[in-house]
Amino acid sequence: MQPTIYLFFKGDCLEAMTHYAEALGGEIMGVFRNADAPDAESRMPGGDDLVMNMSMRIDGATIMASDAPEAMYSKPQGFRVQIAPRSRAEFDRIHHALGSDAQRVEMPAGETFWAERFAMFTDRFGIPWMLNFAGDRAA
Fold first, then answer.
1. Which domains does the chain have, with CATH numbers?
2. φ, ψ for residue 137 (rounded to 5)?
3. pLDDT tens across 13-71, in order?
């Protein structure tokens, strides 16, 4: 059994997940929109373009997501999507791709006692991230 991250967005799910796939080298596996539902009763409120469900594979892991109708959306909190880049160059590339237009930077990219590079930020889509490249400090 492997846990799966499931993210909710405020109408920009497809844009966010496509951006993540490009930044992280992932592959979009499937996208089901409101318009794909067999009838009106099976659709969520908010319009045909909303994503009901989609998935992306990254290095054997799955991240799933959907848009949430306005009345059902709540700001993500109490978690972070953690990524461990394999090199300093990969850290810098991913940090730039995901964090360059961040809504909030909780901890700017820098050296820590446990990692050569570490950063915490909330991206432009409202998703909280944590990047950690341990480098020579890996335990």
1. 5-69 (3.30.720.100), 81-137 (3.30.720.110)
2. -95, 5
3. 999 999 999 999 999 999 999 999 999 888 998 888 999 999 999 999 999 999 998 88
